[in-house]
# Entry
Amino acid sequence: MTLPNKVETQEGVVASVALSPASFARFARFITMELGIKMPESKMTMVQSRLLRRVRDLRLKSVDHYGDYFFDASHTEEREHFINAITTNKTDFFREPEHFDYLCGVVLPAASHPGRRFKAWSAGCSSGEEPYTLAMLLAECASRRPGFDFAILGTDVSSKVLTHARNGVYQESQILPVPPELRRKYLLRSRNDAERLARVVPELRKKVSFHPLNFMDDDYGIRDTFDVVFFRNVMIYFDRGTQEAVIHKICRNLAPGGYLFAGHSESLASLDVPLRPIKTSIYRKPL
Ligand SMILES: C[S@@+](CC[C@H](N)C(=O)[O-])C[C@H]1O[C@@H](n2cnc3c(N)ncnc32)[C@H](O)[C@@H]1O
# Structure
């Protein structure tokens, strides 16, 4: 990506986009320490383009000035804006659909006994598409098996995506991967056609709770034990040591015999973690 060196702010002030190597190094250290996300120099353009919005909103002169503002101890409230700006939140409904086929074809038939509350955790849930995909499939399972109940937890470090997820409102183009019969049942089109928005139905929204959680924290403060954890497309951003430490912490809340789903491009093969490989990117905690 090529960025212009100067941009117009709302007031017509010219802000300099270029981030100095020293400022980048300071941001990179912070991002890796606080979020576990690797920040090689090749990410410099990405970091400066993501921070530009804050430079404009705060009416600062440059991304380097934003660095001075951000690291000033009196601006602790900026941390939340920074995390919202810097995290990569790409997600989709029914992303990597083989995982959902495995869930419905193998995991649920063995787990969906009447009277059982099935618990799923979308760890790094972004704007909610992943936990709501799970909710639709578990609601379908519940409609076929009276007495089967479920609950879903979605967690993320970004407050912005959690707000979006709690609202459960998506563009019509975003709901296209949802099979039409599930769309009809679980998504409500906006009455205003021009808006082209759809909202997850309240019955499904109340099955999913969203909470802030940073994988770098020592204690996740979660008391539940989950049957499945979807930890997808998050650890790709972490180095090996961080991946291992985070998976150990996640496994504290995974039931014996429970499954962990990683992203298709993520492998736990070289990690020393208490999980057995079942299929590509699907792992199970021994009973
Ligand atoms: C690329 S999205 C993946 C969303 C979803 N799991 C999927 O596969 O579609 C990665 C999410 O991980 C979150 N994340 C990154 N670092 C994190 C951390 N240290 N703690 C918690 N969440 C983090 C980001 O905010 C982002 O929403």
About this structure: The first strand starts at residue 6 and ends at 8. The chain has two domains: 6-86, 98-284. The mean pLDDT is 93.
